[in-house]
Amino acid sequence: MIIKSIKLVNFRNHSEYVLECKDSVSLILGQNGCGKTSVLEAIYILTRGKSFRAVDAEILKRGEEFYRIEMEYENGEKSVATYDGKDKTFTIVDKKSKRLPKKNKYPVVLFLPSDLNLVSTSPNKRRDYFDRIFSQFDEKYNDSLLRYEKALKQRNELLKRDFVTADMMFSWNILLAKYGAEIAKFRKQFVGEINEKFTEMYRSIADNQDEVEIKIETLTSEDSNKYLQMLEAGFEKDLVLGHTSFGVHRDDFIFLFNQKEADGSASRGETRSMILALKFIEAEMILNKLGKRPIVLLDDVFSELDDVRRRCLVENFRDNQVIITSVEGFSR
């Protein structure tokens, strides 16, 4: 699917903005703060169903009552998202819904400047990053994640009450064990698939013989019965803390460089090569699993990369529709 155009009304700092997209590479130039990233954000909303950085109330232009995004594809189809200050509505071929239908979602490889710090950022941000890309590989992962997060919120609220017994936790423990075990299984599978290609892809970029790997740091189990036992065993501790201390929501994804943690052992250039390799594998896995070439959104990352890695980035995504934001132009 190729995007032909995207129109924004009252979106962030844009009263009205239209981008006519090219089949290959579209470049959005402008100084920092002019709203370049907002265009990518709008595209992401109409391809994935939600923003990658904010809630709708924060997106709405100050002083306005609504925002609207309209995207047209090369086949003439249109997708529209509107937010009236309370609710967001998607309109696809004259059919309205409060969520973007699964059949209308389209895979995206999103590359933000912050992704280049993935190796050294917080476990929470790493987890959010991998959850976002894994959710594109399999809708079941996304469903399990949403159900898990809902059950986790309910359990945590219960733990904050003045009087709580272990029996009161049972139904939420069952749900957390069921969906947590599913998430753990998916994560193991997807990380295993990435690791099969990670070193080879990294070496093609860095031109050396180093080894790279991603390790899941977890205490959970893929067996829902064992998962349930661990939750029940931690009840007293959770009661004191006032939140659920065990589960996949505490997992971390550790980058290894020559079998050592990359954070502290890999250089700046080496970590950037690792992230580039990860992005290329993400696009390849989407194509293999979904049979679709993802739209590639690159937000001002060229200023963070040297010439070799810039050329590598453009070369590896040459068969995709790419939309780039940049303070300055670049040569391909």
Please specify the SSE layout and strand pairing.
Layout: E1 3-11, E2 14-20, E3 25-29, H1 36-48, H2 56-59, E4 67-73, E5 78-83, E6 88-92, E7 95-97, E8 108-111, H3 123-137, H4 139-159, H5 170-206, E9 212-217, H6 224-233, H7 235-241, E10 252-257, E11 260-261, H8 262-265, H9 268-290, E12 295-299, H10 307-316, E13 322-326
Parallel strand pairs: 3-13, 8-12, 12-13
Antiparallel strand pairs: 1-2, 1-4, 4-5, 5-6, 6-7, 9-10, 10-11
Helix pairs in contact: 3-4, 4-5, 5-6, 5-9
Briefly characterize the structure.
This protein is α+β, with helices and mostly antiparallel strands and 332 residues long.
Structure description:
The protein has two domains: 3-106 and 293-326, P-loop containing nucleotide triphosphate hydrolases (Rossmann fold), CATH 3.40.50.300; 117-284, Up-down Bundle (Glutathione S-transferase Yfyf (Class Pi), Chain A, domain 2), CATH 1.20.1050.90. Helices cover 43% and strands 21% of the residues. The protein has helices spanning 36-48, 56-59, 123-137, 139-159, 170-206, 224-233, 235-241, 262-265, 268-290, 307-316; strands at residues 3-11, 14-20, 25-29, 67-73, 78-83, 88-92, 95-97, 108-111, 212-217, 252-257, 260-261, 295-299, 322-326. Strand 10 (252-257) and strand 11 (260-261) form a beta hairpin. It is globular, with a radius of gyration of 21 Å.
